[in-house]
Design goal:
five-stranded mixed β-sheet, 7 helices, Muramoyl-pentapeptide Carboxypeptidase, domain 1, 31% helix, alpha+beta, 252 residues
């Protein structure tokens, strides 16, 4: 390289007078290319430290788009009932996310943030107690309802059971309890029923105290009922034919 540069310098010194006489355009351009110094400017630190891609977006109720559709598809594949996969983060997607967060031991906020995203990529398995045949399981601790088919979990729903707190009705005190045990659906009413403690949609009664699995307008991610197991109105319609009379209901 050194020999080459010296040769170029000698060529320039010999040719310089002639180049001056003729305008020197050819040799000047050759010299400029040959001896141009290498750039020593470094890339800005901010560019070097910038991430290769933006952090995944947190998804919440009201959001729309392909990322929501991916979330719905993943939840559905894991047996969390989301209704229709439509790319819209509505009530049913939030309910399914509640149920997922509950089974994974996460904060029950219904928001698809970093921790929930990480868990969804590598979720814990969801157990069941009914190992053969069909039935319904209600896990009071986690507040989820599981539909079992052929001894396997078919669908998982968010549910809201009794608050386990006392309440007063017509001058008498009662406990808002969802009783643990093995029961069976013995009565059902299609559509709305006006019960003594409020309206119930598509109730499936499994306990003689008037306790049922039923649809309701409000299904928070925590115990909130007088003893029944609430699901969404849409979920109650979906479950109507799947929980016929004499279906097993195991509450624990």
């Amino acid at each position: 390289m050194i020999t080459f540069l010296l040769s170029v310098v000698l060529m320039m010194s010999v040719a310089a007078p002639a180049a001056a006489a003729t305008g020197g355009s050819d040799l000047a351009s050759i010299g400029a290319v040959s001896v141009a110094p290498r750039s020593t400017v470094s890339a800005p630190t901010s560019l070097l430290l910038a991430p290769s891609s933006a952090a995944p977006k947190t998804l919440k109720r009201g959001d729309k788009g392909k990322e929501v559709r991916k979330l719905q598809t993943r939840l559905r594949a894991l047996k969390y009932w989301v209704g229709t996969v439509d790319g819209e983060f509505g009530n049913l997607t939030q309910q399914a996310l509640y149920a997922f967060q509950k089974t994974q031991g996460l904060t029950r906020d219904g928001v698809f943030g970093p921790k929930t995203r990480k868990a969804l990529a590598n979720p814990k398995s969801v157990g069941r107690r009914i190992t053969s045949g069909s039935g319904v399981e209600i896990d009071k601790k986690r507040q989820v309802l599981k539909l079992i088919r052929k001894g396997k979990v078919k669908w998982i729903f968010n549910t809201s059971t009794g608050t386990e707190q006392p309440y007063t009705h017509k001058g008498k005190k009662y406990m808002a309890d969802t009783p643990k045990g093995k029961w069976r659906v013995y009565r059902q009413v299609k559509g709305w029923r006006d019960g003594e403690l409020g309206h119930l949609y598509n109730p499936k009664y499994f306990h003689t105290d008037g306790i049922a699995i039923h649809g309701y307008n409000s299904v928070p991610p925590r115990p909130a009922s007088h003893g029944c197991a609430r699901v969404t109105m849409d979920a109650s319609r979906f479950l109507w034919k799947l929980i016929p009379i004499n279906t097993r209901v195991w509450i624990y």
